[in-house]
TrEMBL record:
It comes from Actinacidiphila cocklensis. This is Tetratricopeptide repeat protein. InterPro entries: NLR-like, TPR-like_helical_dom_sf. Residues 1-22 are annotated as: Disordered. SUPFAM superfamilies: TPR-like. It holds the Pfam family TPR_12.
Length: 326
């Protein structure tokens, strides 16, 4: 006879979609997640099974997608620790769990912890799976992204260039992970001030993602956002505003109003309006956005902090514009 815990784990695992990053799966995950978390809260991690670890790992990925980073990290850490205990440190599932935990720390802005885990994971993946394994390439990409977020472009750009070349060779030009590598390299070039190469890569990537993934795929929307940001940096606010407004409408429709990427599109739209000389309209957009971000993500989320900073800049610019000239 099955135990109640084992039966609950089996039923939830069977119902849980396999791709937590797929928006089509999110309605199912939203119904399941309270039950998964209740199961986790009422069971001892020391008794977790492989099936339980897999369920918690998927739940953690879904929570990370939704911007619920504290609970995401809790589930991903438990999944990783369970996999390491049950399967061993070198098992591919354990290495994948560590990658997912590092990525959640990265999303939460804990870059020191993320880089530590990614560096450890890359060394182990190179040893266990080899340099061309897709998981090795994913971890190298994530480590490079963490370096970029920390401002270390000297380490980030060579890794991203190497990873794009390897993914082109191993996976092919149209593989979604190859398109991710090209996107990430383009954003790094933008951060380094090489706007011509950044725009060229983003334009190529947007065309390819529209063809391969379709206009509503989250990665297509990400590329359009990043191209708009590159246009803005290059001093082309007209094209930047047009793309940001289109992307915001599409993200509202596809992802919903509280998704972190939708909130980020609202932030980028307001920011470009402020930079283009319309601080009044920017303040009007930032004020409700800050309230929504703090409600959906929490006041301490990195995006909420960025919005708060941008609102202060817009208010200062608006006050300066209203001040009588001497």
């Amino acid at each position: 006879m099955r135990s109640a815990r084992g039966e609950a784990t089996r039923l939830l695992s069977r119902a849980a979609p396999r791709k937590p990053e797929d928006p089509a799966a999110w309605p199912v995950w939203r119904r399941l997640i309270p039950h998964v978390l209740a199961l986790a809260d009422h069971t001892d991690p020391a008794t977790d099974t492989i099936r339980m670890c897999l369920l918690l790992g998927r739940a953690g990925e879904f929570l990370e997608e939704q911007g619920d980073l504290p609970r995401s990290i809790d589930q991903l850490r438990r999944a990783y620790e369970g996999d390491r205990r049950l399967l061993g440190a070198d098992h591919p599932n354990t290495l994948a769990s560590r990658n997912n935990l590092a990525y959640a720390y990265q999303s939460a802005g804990n870059l020191a912890r993320a880089i530590e885990l990614h560096e450890q994971n890359l060394a182990d993946l190179l040893r266990v799976l080899g340099p061309d394994h897709p998981n090795t390439l994913t971890t190298r990409n994530n480590l490079a992204q963490a370096y970029k977020q920390s401002g270390d472009l000297d380490r980030a750009i060579p890794l991203l260039e190497q990873n794009l070349a390897d993914r082109l060779r191993v996976l092919g030009a149209d593989h979604p992970n190859t398109l991710i590598s090209r996107n990430n390299l383009a954003t790094a070039y933008k951060s380094a001030g090489d706007l011509a190469r950044a725009i060229e890569l983003h334009e190529q990537n947007l065309a390819d993602r529209l063809r391969v993934l379709g206009p509503d795929h989250p990665n297509t929307l990400t590329t359009r956002n990043n191209l708009a940001q590159a246009y803005r940096a290059a001093g082309d606010p007209v094209r930047a505003i047009e793309l940001h407004e289109q992307n915001l409408a599409d993200r509202l429709r596809v992802l919903g109003p509280d998704h972190p990427n939708t909130l980020n599109s609202r932030n980028n739209t307001a920011s470009i309006l402020r930079a283009a000389g319309d601080p009044r309209r920017a303040v009007e957009l930032f004020e409700p956005l800050l309230a929504d971000a703090e409600r959906a993500l929490g006041a301490n989320h990195p995006l909420a902090g960025a919005i708060r900073h941008n609102l202060a800049l817009a208010r200062r610019q608006l006050a300066s514009a209203r001040r009588p000239q001497a």
